[in-house]
Specification:
- FMN binds at residues 62-65, 93, 122, 187, 217, 268-270, 289-290.
- One of its GO terms (biological process) is isoprenoid biosynthetic process.
- It is found in: Cytoplasm.
- Belongs to the IPP isomerase type 2 family.
- With 362 residues, the protein is an alpha/beta fold.
- The protein is built from 19 helices and 12 strands.
- Helix 13 links the parallel strand 10 and strand 11.
- The N and C termini lie far apart (56 Å).
- Bound molecules: ligand FNR.
- The site of ligand FNR has 26 residues, from helix 1 and strand 7.
- Ligand FNR is lined by residues 10-11, 14, 62-65, 92-93, 122, 149, 151, 187, 189-190, 212, 216-217, 266-269, 288-290, 293.
């Protein structure tokens, strides 16, 4: 099966089937409500800088697509909306354009539609090993990218028979690529990144990590549906078994931020409140993919509507935590309960020290 055809299958399944599920770890995190914020909502400044450019609020649409003629419109709608609202955007894996230069324009159209926002390129770690570090510059030039994400999706690869599970050498390839013209973002795709891997990535020269943790789109789940469709019962069982495998997103944010990475919090970030929780947990940016897929099949104004809903909820969460700007939100007190708290504690983090203690010790 061609890369481009597989990508269309992924989009169809993500649109038509329930690909989330499991549990939602952001429900275990709550920002402490302030009844007397003592600021006016209108004076809240939610702007930030990312990759040297200003964003209206700390958010990005993470990489989904490109590579098949039918995906160009989705990318253009996402790009027009991201440009209008002032957020960053990633493209999907550019592998298909390396295999067939005719589909390059399904990616380059993004930069034409969004001239001034941060655009992030995308390639899988296994392809990076095969192509060599020079490929990063080529991918960046294709879309005038501000950074290129190297995606780590070994869970998804493991549950499909044609999966590429040659993980050896990926870290060396990332290290070699991190000396290039544009920054590398290490990115999972729904199973999260732990502190051990974050420390190794930082040591290899990566500064930005998109955790893409467990709690949102399950790529193991997507592959389970694909396996069912082609009558491959064994792979379908595998896909369902590993549906909720991985590091829950809020945990992954704490793990990677504690290692010193600049963190993008994604994987189940389903509202501006989840973005605000992410910033308080230590992330620089929140990000999401799936919630923008259906609007992008409809039109750019539908994507703008979805982004504005995130922005409004984010600014409201800032107001209700008395956070006039992002540095105030970064130190806003929060609580962590339930399974997420247990995981953090088992991993050696004191969730109390993460919240009020932190404020008292300032
Ligand atoms: C993705 N994602 C993805 N990631 C990546 O690095 N390269 C890619 O080509 C794709 N393709 C892709 C297609 C579609 C249809 C979706 C929904 C997602 C993964 C995405 O960027 C993100 O990491 C995960 O989906 C988790 O975030 P959400 O969807 O839970 O917000």
């Amino acid at each position: 099966m061609t890369t481009a055809k597989r990508k269309l299958d992924h989009i169809r399944i993500c649109l038509d089937r329930g690909v989330e599920g499991g549990w939602q770890p952001f429900e275990d995190v709550a920002l402490v409500h302030r009844a007397l914020p003592e600021i006016d909502a209108a004076e809240i400044d939610s702007r930030c800088r990312f990759l040297g450019k200003e964003l209206a609020f700390p958010f990005m649409i993470t990489g989904m697509t490109g590579g098949h003629p039918e995906t160009k419109e989705i990318n253009v709608n996402l790009a027009l909306a991201a440009q209008e609202v002032g957020v960053a955007m990633g493209v999907g894996s550019q592998r298909a354009a390396l295999e067939n230069s005719e589909v390059e324009e399904t990616f380059s159209a993004v930069r034409d539609a969004a001239p001034t926002i941060p655009i992030i390129g995308n390639i899988g770690a296994v392809q990076l090993v095969r192509e060599g570090p020079e490929v990063i510059d080529r991918l960046a030039e294709m879309i005038e990218a501000d950074a290129v994400a190297v995606h780590l999706n070994f869970l998804q690869e493991s549950v499909q028979p044609e999966g590429e599970t040659e993980a050896r050498g990926a870290m060396a390839a990332i290290r070699a690529a991190s000396d290039g013209r544009v920054p590398i973002i290490a990115k999972e795709t729904g199973a999260g990144i732990c502190r051990e891997d974050a420390l190794a990535l930082l040591e290899a020269g990566v500064e930005v990590i998109d955790v893409a943790g467990m709690g949102g789109t399950s790529w193991s789940g997507v592959e389970a549906y694909r396996a069912e469709e082609r009558g491959d019962g064994e792979s379908a069982v595998m896909g369902r078994l590993f549906w909720s495998w991985g590091v829950p997103t809020p945990v992954s944010v704490v793990e990677c931020a504690s290692a010193g990475a600049e963190v993008i919090s994604s994987g189940g970030v389903r509202s501006g409140i989840d973005v605000a929780k992410s910033i308080a947990l230590g992330a620089r940016l929140g990000g999401a993919a799936l919630p923008f897929l259906r609007p992008a099949t409809e039109g750019s104004s539908e994507v703008v509507g979805a982004l504005r809903a995130y922005e409004r909820a984010f600014r409201t969460a800032m107001f209700l935590t008395a956070s006039r700007d992002l540095s105030a939100l970064e130190s806003a007190p929060f609580i962590v309960v339930g399974r997420t708290r247990e995981i953090l504690e088992e991993r050696g983090f004191d969730s109390k020290k993460l919240s009020i203690y932190r404020e008292m010790s300032r």
